[in-house]
Input
Amino acid sequence: MSEAQATETETETEAADTTPRRSAFGRLIRDPQAVITATILVVIVLLGLLAPLIAQHDPNESALSAVNVDPGTPGYLLGGDQSGRDIFARLLYSINTSVLSGLIGMSVAVAVGLTFGLIGGYFGGRTRFATEWLFNLIMTFPGLLLLIVLLPVTGGDFRATMLIFGVLLAPGVYRIVRNLTVGARNELYVDAARVSGLSSPRILRRQVMPTVRGPVIISAAFLTGSAIGVQAGLAFLGLGSTEVPSFGAMISDGFRNYYVDPLQFVWPAAFLGVLTSALVLFGNSLRDALEGARPKAQKIATPRVEAGSPASRGEAGEALVQIEGLSLSYPTPSGGVKDVLKGVSLEIRPGETLGLVGESGSGKSQTAFSVLGLLPPDAVVTSGSIRLEGRELLGLRERELIQVRGRAIAYVPQEPMSNLDPSFTIGAQLVEGIRATSGLPRAAAGKRAMELLDHVGIPDPKRVFSSYPHQISGGMAQRVLIAGAVASRPRLLIADEPTTALDVTIQAEILDLLRDLQAEMGMAILMVTHNFGVVADICDRIAVMQQGRIVETGEVEAVFREPQHPYTRMLLDSILDESHVRTDSPVLVAPGAEGPR
Amino acid sequence: MTATAPLLEIDDLRVAFPGRGFRARPIEVLHGVSLTLGEGEVLGLVGESGSGKTTIGRATLGLVEASGGTIRFQDEDITHAGTAQRRALARDIQVVFQDPYSSLNPALTIEDILSEPLIVQGVTARDARARVLGLLDKVELPKDAGQRLPREFSGGQRQRVAIARALAPGPKLIICDEPVSALDLSTQALVLELLMDIQRETGVSYLFISHDLGVVRHVSHRVAVIYQGDIVETGPAAAVTSTPDHPYTRRLLLASPVADPVEQRRRREERHRMARLEAGGGTPADQQGDPAGEQDDPNQVSGAVAGWPGPAIRPEA
Output
């Protein structure tokens, strides 16, 4: 393979994700909810900070003349309360109390939770045991009760109370950070950092912190709201200093005065409500921005079939499946469309094995899923047709498709383990499939399942029948799935990289099994794979895909001997066969010349 | 043993992981493995999943603790190296992992990823940046790659970044743990070519771990075959991968499909013939021919496989 040609192909096939990305901040300022709630929060905080300038009275200054005066009385914009204090002034000063409570509670919770979460998550063993125990203990404390009991200690000062409440909130942050850190700890990039000789604090700061940052920021918004709520609640109950103006205390006063002046309790309640709901909604927007909740792709067209395609039934007599001019697109988040299949035409003949080969992103799996009618809901078939024995499959209703899937067409997936439900036995899963396609009664279906397990070369069918998926090996699991797939004697078996997840010795056995089953049942196999060895082993014909197009089709031996398309040639040249043996002996580079320094 | 002075000597290495559940017995995954790797040499380590090949690499890197045996690097015992010794070793021993997605921190730019190991070694931030440009050039990535995030690159390009990170401190040994198995065929060939070019140019040694005989044959001077925690065969690459001595290696070779329908048919028949022979003679392995083993008894400590000869060690060519 010439170097130039290879590099060119790489840049071509390795098209990186170049969709323009926006920073989290960019996404945030484009979200109306974020902008509105942030504006409300800023205005409220400003009102609080400017309270000494705006308010005409001290919040605790009472005047007999102002007792329960109506809103609009000069100097008393919102009226006076039962002690003759200016309600407007008290509202403004209460903002400061709330904001300060929220900030103290949130900062303590984040500082404590983040520190211990990182330590407990990263170090494990005894350290994690200790932090876990500590935070579980904290969680068992009845929060509000503890704060009330500790009033003599805090001296009724809401700031001290919020310090303690911050500690009580910390387990929430701890759990988030600990889980994320444990996850990051198992990532290879942390291993790589350790191999590079980075110290644990440096790994935590540089490698782990960035991954926990987002979720912590989000939870900080909710914690602030929660701390504000609790502070108001305590003040409502009359706990804490009466000198400090607070929404909770104002609501409490308003309640007591309800029959005299119902409006008195509306103002603080409204302010508190707006403040906390703005915080929660802003937290939601933050989460969307930081965790990249993408706008849902819009369906731009419904699957449609080209009416004018040559669907003459007589012509399709020879082929089992006839795919003609199949084009498939996905809408992208930026509003455009991405074509994944660009006019694929393919024919699968009865009883043959067709290898569909290509690199990742070539569209080979998409082609297979189109035949199965299992495309994701946002996929759009822009043109083409898929006919099974002359019957058009595109545009069939789900109910009609079920008649085809599992009966005429069966499927063997790549990852056998993730295609078995871990909470049911192998036998139960097989029986359910058999009953769905054949309508046999349970006992007969069980007997049939046992026969099938025996048939696919499982040495102890009885034991496997009553086993759970985790109790059998990957090779066994793939045999089980093949047993399920051939239960209804399908005419076409679609195998999507059925051996990629398996070791080579198991792969050879699975391919042998497929070959035997095919000889016995006469079904056709569509073998989707990237491995030319597998193609050489089992396929009669081969179709090579590149970027949504079929570039070459032919008999396997002919294509391997004389590939026509340059892409096929390039792929075949990339294979490391027995001629690629390293022959040069180890070389010592003169000291000083080594290394890229 | 080797043509050049030994760089890495692993002797009777044992690794056991704690068993699952309360008071479970530890599970030994390496049952006394010995390997040597010379300077400027590539040693291929081939085996199937669960064979313990990755564990050998991780023990050498200090990512798992050895429960027995010794690992010596440049005549220095590093089996239980402490933090300070590890940091010094980071200059000499590096790694390229299999998964190019999980091995790069998604939150850091390529430049940060590459300069971090340099800064730890005491290079100033400015020098580190200059060196990063040289590294990017070495692995054939564009100069502006440093400012971008890993998610903007394809698998092959990410693996190039991982190779650049391993090269950064100018190591003498790189553990390559399945560095190309997650890549497409054509990308795989290019990344292998890059790894071999760098090796020839700098004289760095590779412990090249892979499940793919074809890849190992292509890059290695010598090959060691590991099966269920034991090395069953060691020797020159050409000999081990085309005319193996040990039955397991032979079975591995016959099971690897070749991209030639005629030759593959011959091999298949040969494999079936061997299987029939084995079934008749009742010699090796379990009857399902499942060398990864059923998961019923992960504690089974198999020395050599029942009925199979001990490790086949070939005279060096």
Summary: Residues 282-307 of chain B have pLDDT under 50 and may be disordered. Chain B has ten helices and eleven strands. Chain B touches chain A through 112 residues (CB under 8 Å).
